[in-house]
Specification:
Chain lengths: ~270, ~270
């Protein structure tokens, strides 16, 4: 089926959006549309320009026989700032307050539009790092980890608190949770992570950082390295932070259970883009 | 910023792909591109035609003041059949066999490209049903549920096996697992599901159907209704199936631990599209 330019632009845009961070040979499109490579190159020039103008991302062209074109999703600083402000407003809603000063975030993490947008922000800030896999701990971080992984085109591995027969053999560690100082266990299926992997850790919430620190210890068992850490919400309410370098979207500055008031500010995200 | 047609087609395609099943007023695009509504209508005609030709989906236009345009993702029968065959090959790999005849599926569920494609297939088959929310049970079904929910533009609710303080008050039920006949518990945060919701249940694996049956019982506690059931992998190895109507992608017909052999065939998906 032969395509006019407009049809090619639409179909190629769809393909790039569905396949971020993947190297696509020019011949793939030339064969698909039965078009000359020179026409495909022109198409890509138009798409690249529009993607950059609209803050969608960019196309990178790698020359040579093993080359091709790759779509890198990006978020502009303006879009990130306005989305983070919107997230802050959502988090501040006093109806989130649970007994004990905990926050109900399940609705945010259950909204695929928000989750996807959060994923795009993290993928944007970590786009230039060398990442083999995204890791999170069950259960609440899972949707965020997938959203990031999809934009980075890498797999997800999930650390669990309990062992399941369908995971096969596992490696487990004990760690001390940063805020409650309790000893906890986490484990990871042996075959889910290759030795030496470069790992992006994503989680929904970080207080003292004990859970994330636990994941870092678990990575050492796999000779794997931390390539980055991203958390949706960090809490300021802590004496000693166990984790140094991380990217956060929103920072919880105060929770007043009696007055039913939650205070937030933007996390450190903007200093990374 | 004024846009030429090619730029509009690219940006609109991106917007539709990122916002499936959402009604977008024509004025949104007319304002965004400072273009006449007649030009936007022509653009949408070109996009609709390309989406349909390439099996991406379709655009539906609703007339009137409250009207607009909506992108409905669809998968062609050919694409679904070939993807399901590919999935079957992946599942059949004898290295998946775990002690006890269990299958390791974590790598499939950890691959965002596969998960996304599975999500698009389910969203395609359930596109015409009235669905308020996608439900699954922690942990392994979560990525699939999000992929489906994103294409349907509805939230996800996650049933858990254990209670967490950050979920607030919960409703719990006991149920009998279909194959092991053990009594198990599942629970759902009270505020995560509105009374009377129409729920699409998604899970990775169904044997006798005890877990899915448990979720159906839990729905009754919320006066909610089952709008559909989708499972990635069903197992034939069962006397009495507890669940009637469901859509499956792949069917496990035999697992021979001694000979290290896994047999699969296509699930019932193709009879629904």
């Amino acid at each position: 089926m032969k395509f006019r330019r407009s049809g090619r632009l639409i179909d190629m845009t769809n393909y790039f959006i569905q396949n971020p961070q993947r190297l696509i040979p020019l011949t793939y499109f030339a064969d698909k549309y039965q078009s000359a490579k020179s026409s495909i190159s022109e198409d890509m020039g138009i798409i690249k320009q529009t993607f950059e103008q609209r803050g969608i991302g960019t196309l990178i062209t790698l020359p040579g026989a093993a080359g091709g074109v790759k779509f890198i999703p990006k978020t502009s600083k303006e879009e990130a700032t306005s989305f983070i402000a919107e997230l802050g407003d959502i988090v501040q809603n006093p109806e989130r307050l649970l007994p004990g000063g905990y926050l109900y975030l399940t609705d945010i993490l259950g909204n695929p539009t928000l989750v996807n947008h959060i994923g795009r922000l993290f993928a944007s800030v970590f786009a230039d790092r060398d990442i083999d896999v995204v890791m999170t701990v069950a259960t609440k971080g899972i949707p965020l980890a997938y959203a990031v992984a999809q934009y980075l085109n890498v797999p997800v591995v999930i650390v669990r608190r309990d062992s399941k027969v369908t995971e096969g053999s596992t490696v487990s560690i004990n760690y001390v949770s940063g805020s409650s100082k309790r000893i906890q266990t986490m484990l990871l299926a042996k075959r889910s992570l290759a030795q030496g992997s470069k790992v992006l850790i994503i989680d929904d919430f970080m207080k003292a950082g004990g859970t994330i620190n636990g994941m870092i210890s678990l990575l050492e068992e796999f000779d794997a390295k931390v390539a980055g850490i991203g958390v949706l919400l960090e809490s300021e309410d802590t004496q000693e932070r166990l984790v140094d370098e991380y990217v956060s979207l929103v920072k919880l500055t105060a929770v007043d259970v009696k007055e039913k008031h939650i205070s937030v500010e933007a996390g450190n995200y903007s200093s990374f883009i």
